[in-house]
Amino acid sequence: MNSDHHHHDHDHDHDHDHPHAPPQPDDKVHSYYQILSIALKELLIEKGVVTAAQVRQFIEKRDSITPANGAKVVARAWVDPAYRARLFEDGNAAAAELGFPITGTKLVAVENTPDTHNVVVCTLCSCYPRDLLGLPPAWYKSRAYRARVVREPRAVLREFGTELSDDVALRVHDSTADIRFLVVPQRPAGTENLDEDALAALVTRDSMIGVARI
């Protein structure tokens, strides 16, 4: 039985709190956002809201974030049932427990199981849990991924090397300006004797987006 389930967590006509680029080729979308970012930065500096040094420090801090943050959250959820429950109840609070505060957006953790597989997309732009995963990969921002993973998610996953049997329900979570998703992949078999750090080392960025398994 085909159990594909396209789960959209926002209506496509909603208003984001950030603008979207006008329709144009992918290679120009980034230029639009770059221009917008530069204009905003220069305006904030001109008005004295921030200094150039503060902007640089913020950018350096954001650029230094890697998927290792999210991997630590996943590994803790694997070894600590109480933390796992808190993560699914309140993702922001659980991430903050490990030193990864997320402000301005709600973090929702979704769990892969033998019967259910989750994958994340932002169909309108590239909303992404950057505090846990760092900068999104280019393919996540591409128009092809954003459109196809909704229409033909199993085909897209196969291109990433992820084959799902027909009896596994596939849920596509559409991020918004207010909500970010983190996929908690299945813990690999045979890892019972690994400590938390060793488990975190197994967790990949793509597995936390849902396009790959561990």
Describe this structure in words.
This protein is α/β, with parallel strands linked by helices. The protein has one domain: Nitrile hydratase alpha /Thiocyanate hydrolase gamma (Nitrile Hydratase, Chain A, Alpha-Beta Complex), CATH 3.90.330. The chain contains 11 helices and 5 strands; from the N terminus they run βαααααββααααββαα. It has helices at residues 26-46, 52-64, 68-79, 81-89, 91-97, 130-133, 138-141, 143-151, 153-159, 196-200, 205-209; strands spanning 4-5, 106-111, 116-121, 169-174, 179-184. The strands form 2 sheets. A 3-stranded parallel β-sheet has the order 1-4-3, covered by helices on one side. A two-stranded parallel ribbon has the order 2-5. The longest helix has 21 residues, at 26-46. It is globular, with a radius of gyration of 18 Å. It starts with a strand and ends in a 5-residue tail after the last helix. The model is unreliable at 1-29 (pLDDT under 50).
Q: What topology does this entry show?
A:
Layout: E1 4-5, H1 26-46, H2 52-64, H3 68-79, H4 81-89, H5 91-97, E2 106-111, E3 116-121, H6 130-133, H7 138-141, H8 143-151, H9 153-159, E4 169-174, E5 179-184, H10 196-200, H11 205-209
Helix pairs in contact: 3-4, 4-5, 8-9
How would you concisely characterize the structure shown here?
The chain has 214 residues and is of the alpha/beta class.
Q: Which percent bin holds the helix content? A: 40-55%
Q: Within the largest sheet, what's the order of strands?
A: 1-4-3
Q: Can you tell me the CATH superfamily?
A: Nitrile hydratase alpha /Thiocyanate hydrolase gamma
Overall pLDDT score: 85
Classify the fold: give the CATH topology: Nitrile Hydratase, Chain A
Instruction: Report the C-alpha radius of gyration, rounded.
Output: 18 Å
**What structural class do helix, strand and pairing data support?**
alpha/beta
Q: Indicate the proportion of strand residues.
A: 5-15%
* CATH-scheme architecture: Alpha-Beta Complex
The DSSP helix count reads 11
Q: Strand-and-helix sequence, N→C? A: EHHHHHEEHHHHEEHH
Low-pLDDT stretches: 1-29
What global shape is seen? globular
Regarding CATH, which class? Answer: Alpha Beta
End-to-end distance: 25 Å
Give the total of beta strands.
5
Number of domains: 1
